[in-house]
């Protein structure tokens, strides 16, 4: 019955193609037709999937591919950013020698500390990048998606001992990879990626953060960095949220915005007081036997300089805590009204600075990993390209006080107090109201008829 139905369907399809009124049923696939007639699909229809044309071309061993296979692979490589700018001869050689791998989920492609002997481009699936911290824990750095590439900078180094992977790359899902072996890489792509490596080195060197570092150390940082691109209006760093990356701006311009958040600023001041008090208590801490034998002043009101400073800090801290409690109570009982500037109102932001190359952003993740909250938002004003260094990868370096101080000086945006921001925003709103009133006064009366307006007789 199914065979006769298929013959009738095939005959009807041919007659429909010959006529002018061709309908959608004439283009049914076999699976759709089986469902249409209520026929159950075979078991192997769900197990075996027909490979795509590109997969068939990749399955042909390198060196044995036909011109048709290479034509299909050329279409694929042209849409991958890492191969988009290569010449015709290089692209033809890549189509001939590129290899194809499938990876199961939870399989390590490269392992940290082991040699990475290929350039890989992700075709499908996802790959997570891990790094082992100094404490021995495995920390996730980022997740790669098609068509991201990895492993290219390991192949540039001449010695196999130096080509060990700096991170672990693990497939999250079943993934497909395009693989360029080291022999093909050295012959076709090494110079291109070496130039990119030098460019990254130049950006890091020009930033001033790594002054005094050797070429080998800065080159190591360049290997760990990743290129991140942002479109106009994208947010690189969000105020009040943690930032995982220290970003070095390569191209483009960014605006630094800040909205008033008095509560967060008071909390930071309290944390600074606690830090100073702990330092004083640690510095002027004595054994109890020494305190018993210490010379006590005749005047009980006498205080040492350290005790006086400690008392002043405790008094300041108590005042800040009372102010913070008052703001929290006010935020609980007061609802935000349209157009009113309240603490933490992200719709009311003030531009406080600009960032251009060789500026940096996201430095709070390095300067204060415990708190790690951005003081302002960084928004791309144009197309922006950055080199991003994860804060965990940064901790694997020789982090000295001089390095931290250089980063602090490099993040040269001076954020005004939140009270000052609120005052300036209110002034801007008042200026807008005044400008609107002036324009309304210059315009004719809205109640006038059209015949009374200038040019009404035209």
Automatic annotation (TrEMBL):
Transmembrane segments: none annotated. Gene3D superfamilies: Jelly Rolls (2.60.120.10). InterPro entries: cNMP-bd_dom (IPR000595), cNMP-bd_dom_sf (IPR018490), RmlC-like_jellyroll (IPR014710). It comes from the Eukaryota. SUPFAM superfamilies: cAMP-binding domain-like. PANTHER family: CYCLIC NUCLEOTIDE-BINDING DOMAIN CONTAINING PROTEIN. This is Cyclic nucleotide-binding domain-containing protein. It comes from Florenciella parvula.
């Amino acid at each position: 019955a199914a065979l006769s139905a298929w013959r009738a369907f095939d005959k009807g399809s041919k007659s429909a193609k010959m006529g002018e009124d061709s309908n959608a049923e004439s283009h049914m696939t076999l699976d759709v037709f089986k469902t249409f007639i209520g026929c159950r699909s075979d078991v192997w229809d769900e197990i075996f999937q027909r490979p795509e044309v590109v997969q068939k071309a990749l399955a042909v061993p390198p060196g044995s591919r036909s011109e048709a296979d290479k034509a299909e692979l050329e279409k694929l490589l042209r849409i991958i950013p890492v191969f988009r700018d290569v010449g015709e001869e290089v692209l033809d050689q890549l189509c001939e020698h590129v290899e194809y791998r499938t990876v199961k989920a939870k399989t390590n492609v490269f392992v940290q500390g082991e040699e990475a002997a290929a350039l890989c481009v992700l075709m499908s699936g996802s790959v997570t990048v891990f790094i082992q911290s100094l404490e021995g824990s495995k920390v996730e750095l980022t997740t790669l998606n098609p068509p991201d590439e990895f492993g290219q900078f390991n192949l540039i180094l001449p010695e196999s001992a130096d080509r060990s992977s700096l991170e672990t790359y693990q497939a999250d899902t079943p993934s497909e990879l395009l693989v360029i072996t080291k022999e093909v890489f050295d012959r076709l792509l090494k110079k291109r990626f070496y130039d990119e490596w030098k460019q990254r080195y130049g950006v890091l060197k020009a930033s001033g953060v790594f002054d005094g570092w050797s070429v080998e150390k800065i080159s190591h940082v360049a290997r760990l960095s990743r290129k991140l691109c942002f479109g106009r209006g994208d947010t690189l760093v969000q105020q009040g949220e943690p930032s995982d990356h220290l970003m070095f701006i390569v191209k483009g311009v960014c605006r630094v915005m800040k909205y008033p958040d008095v509560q967060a600023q008071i909390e930071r001041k309290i944390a600074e007081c606690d830090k100073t008090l702990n330092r004083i208590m640690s510095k002027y801490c004595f054994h109890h036997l020494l305190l018993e034998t210490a010379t006590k002043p005749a005047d009980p009101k006498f205080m040492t300089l350290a005790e006086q400073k400690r008392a002043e800090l405790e008094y300041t801290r108590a005042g800040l805590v009372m102010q913070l409690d008052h703001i929290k109570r006010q935020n609980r009982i007061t609802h935000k009204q349209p157009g009113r500037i309240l603490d933490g109102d992200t719709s009311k932001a003030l531009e406080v600075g600009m960032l251009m190359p060789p500026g940096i952003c996201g430095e709070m993740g390095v300067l204060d990993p415990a708190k790690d909250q951005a003081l302002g938002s960084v928004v791309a004003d144009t197309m922006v390209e950055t080199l991003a260094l994860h804060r965990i990868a940064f901790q694997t370096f020789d982090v000295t006080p001089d390095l931290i101080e250089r980063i602090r000086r490099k993040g040269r945006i001076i954020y005004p107090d939140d009270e000052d921001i609120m005052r300036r925003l209110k002034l801007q709103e008042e200026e807008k109201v005044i400008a609107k009133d002036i324009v309304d006064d210059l315009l004719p009366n809205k109640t006038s008829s059209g015949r009374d307006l200038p040019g009404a007789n035209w």
